[in-house]
Structure formats: structure tokens, C-alpha cells
Amino acid sequence: MFKKKIITLPVSFDNSPSCQAAYIEAGNGPTLLMLHGFFGEATCWLPLMENLQQHFRCISLDLLAFGDSSQPKIIYDVATEVTFLRHFIQQLKLEQFYLLGHSFGAWVSSAYALQFPHKVRGLILAGPAGIRDDSFCGRYDHLRPLLWDTPLIDFALNLATPVAKIVGKKADIEQIWSFRKNLMNQPVARSFLLTRLRPEDAVDTVEKDIHKLPMPALVIAGELDETIPLWHSETYAQEIPNAQLKIIPGADHSLPQNYHQEMVSLITEFLG
Q: How many other CB atoms are found less than 10 A from the CB of residue 13?
């Protein structure tokens, strides 16, 4: 049974003197540090940890404002998550490790590896975000009212619910309710959707710098990923000098959850 541990980090992102980091740890061997994506947390890696713990010390972290880690009321960016990750690594006294990230976690992993390349023995990026893509701008404008922290949105949805049932749209309104609830409980996702309205707001993407990454890298992509287009993964694989790209046939973006066996096979082969 995997159980989360909580540690206190001597770093503040608001007015508090410290923050807490939640993580899961299992296994022995070289350290494999795992970072989840949006709407995820440390537990999303459990299927992989069950298979990899025989050969690796697996550490799965709740990034700042996810899961049971602290949720300061700030505007979030990748640099903030890298700072949080750096303090977590220092607190656990990790000297060198392999870094595995999915989606947003892969973006944070790349940004960390660019700042501290001597710490990262190898980089594994699954469905990685972090490549500037101007087509994202405007794609989620229709969802932004669902992020407004006002009871008026809940009042409007309550009014719409009985009408939706009458016209056969009950499932649609329930999905909207669920989406709002999830977003209101995800400060980082909320912050990114509210503050990145224009192409020029994508100031912390990594495509201009990943050619500097010196460590071996494995990029894993889902063939049918509609969340992060395949060309993003291809860009990582092309720009990182010592990188290889592996595409999982028929896979979507939910790689750790639904394609963990394929990931375990690729990771095991990559790490030898």
C-alpha cells in the first residue's frame, strides 16, 4: 500500500514562513523522480511505481498547489514550480536522479533540467507540454467564465440544470459542473487559463533552450493525443541532442494512467 508522506520546505510563496510537499516513495536503486500533469497528483504514477520499484527508488511528488502539497494564493508559472521542486530535492538530499514528467510535469522537468543539468542523469518526457503553440490562444476562451470565483456562475448553472434535463442535455450540464469543480480546485490550471490570453504571454516555454540539455532523453508520445499535439513531442526529440522519440500506437494523452505497461517497457529499455 502506497502512502503519502508530508515534509516541510523552508521556502515561502506567500506570507507563510514555509510550505509543505506531499510525495510517495517506494523501491530501491537509482532514484526516479516523477512529476504529474494538470489535474493530476502523485498517485497518477502508482501503476508505474508498482512495476518499477523493483529496480528504482521511485519518488512521486505532488507539485505545488496539487494534491496534498501547499496551495498558496499566488499567480503560478513554471518558475514557481521549479523553485518548489528545487527545495524538495534539497530537502531529500537527492544528489543525482532520473526525472520523469508527464504533460505539465514534463514542462517543469525540462525547465528544472535546464537550470540544474548536473543533477539530472536522464530525462523522460511523456506527452510533454512547454512548446509555444499559438493555436492554444483563444482555444479555451469559452471556458474562462467557469473560472470566475463568483456565486453568479453557480446560480446560472443551477438555473440551467432543469432546462438541460428537459431538452436532453443533462449529461452536458453535469460535465460543465464537474469541469468547474475540478478547475476551482486546481489553482495552477486556473492561473494558467486566466493569465495566458495572448501568444506573447507564453514567456516561459522551453523550445528555445532545450538544445542545451546535455543528458540522454526519452520522449514518449501518444499517437492520438489531442491535448498536446504530436509535433510538440517531435520538437523536443529534434532539439535535445541526445534524445529519442517513441510513439505509443493508439494512445491518447492519459499515458501514465492507461498506457503504463507500454511506458514501463520503454522506460526500462531506456534506463537499461
A: 19
- HEC per residue, 71-102: CCCCCCCHHHHHHHHHHHHHHCCCCCEEEEEE
SS3 of 18, please?
coil
Q: Are 124 and 232 found together in one domain? A: yes
150 with 127, same domain: the answer is: no
Same domain flag for 99 and 52:
yes
**Can you give the three-state secondary structure of 109-140, one letter per residue?**
HHHHHHHCHHHEEEEEEECCCCCCCHHHCCCC
Task: State which residues of the chain have pLDDT below 70.
Answer: 1, 135-150, 152-184, 194, 196-202
Please tell me the pTM assigned to this model: 0.86
pLDDT in tens, 158-173: 655 665 566 566 666 6
pLDDT tens for 1-21 read 689 999 999 998 988 888 999
Question: What cell was used for 9?
Answer: 520546505
Domain span at 90? 5-135+202-271
**120 and 145 fall within a common domain:** no
Mark which of 150, 173, 195 sits at the end of a domain. 195
- Do 131 and 207 have their domain in common? yes
How far is the C-alpha of 110 from the C-alpha of 2, rounded, in Å?
Answer: 27
pLDDT at 75: 87
Residue 8, strand partner residues: 20
93 and 169 share one domain = no
A 10 A CB-CB count for 214 gives 13
Contacts of 258 (CB under 8 A, 6+ apart): 251, 252
Residue 124: which CATH number? 3.40.50.1820
